[in-house]
Amino acid sequence: MNTRIKKLIKSKDGFVSIYTILWLTVLVPLLIFILINFTTMIKQKINYKNICDNAASSAVTHLNQVALTDGILEIRVSDAETIVKKIIARDLNLNDDLSLKPDSLITGKPVIETKIYNDIPQDGLTFSTKFGNSITITKPSVVVIGEFPVATSFKSAQGSTIKTYGVAQVQFNETTN
Amino acid sequence: MKGKLLKKGHLVNKKGFVSIETILSMVFVLIFFVLIVEFFNYIYPTINLQVETHTLTQRAKVQGGLTNSDVLNMKSKLKNKGFDESKVIITAKTKTLDRSNVTPMTQTGTNYEKRDSGDEIIVRVEVPAHTEVDGWALAIGSRAFARKTHIIEERIYSERW
Fold it and tell me: Beta strand pairing status for A141-150 and A160-169?
């Protein structure tokens, strides 16, 4: 009996090497996971960056009309905050208070921080975001910092949070009208 | 018969032998190869489109919509990137109005979304995806990348007075 077991253990008939088992069970699924997840994350990162940019760009269009007649550029704080929320809510199919709908594009309520800078020194204002980037603004500006909980490609995975920001400064464009 | 084959060594002959390991490995290498091809087939055009659409949206913000030349330029850019120009759909709309052919900044006119209108402009670009390797991808169950159309949509408010 013992000899039979020893023979069976040493037998190389129908042999599959440990490398093959390792490849099939660990490395190949891991590589596929990384590739698909990486792809989705790149796409989503750009998408959320664009959403923050658009939210900030839209917010800076809401200026205080009374101050403007005196030549002062001042972003209306409450309007700007409302517009930021509105753009993000529409883009991600969320409720107006940014809570989730059943068919929302993210998995949790996003954390949105809107910073409005109206008083800018003549030589500009430099500050750093919580992501370590240094930003210099020279005109009244809106900075939108967002943290978006997203699903990964594999539904069973817990998902992750994409952190990004958008900055926009007030600008005037000449028009013939 | 079986005995004869074994005796002659046909079944145990290792000349021209391909192991089961090799077959399995090659199948997985092929799957991985198809996924890499899909990566470039799907994600590269998508990223390109996202960047181009974002640039277009910023133009829509400045002009209160898109001019005819913006739409034509975008189509031309997409054609240069290998997309079928005739199937590209580019629109800029508010809730009620089409803003895909607004008055350019250099001309006089009122056909554009005004800054104080309070209505957002939705810029939408629809491009048919490259589908050359979709069959391969679907065959191995890679539905993650198999798309018929790339649709990119962005929202912005006009800053034109």
Answer: antiparallel
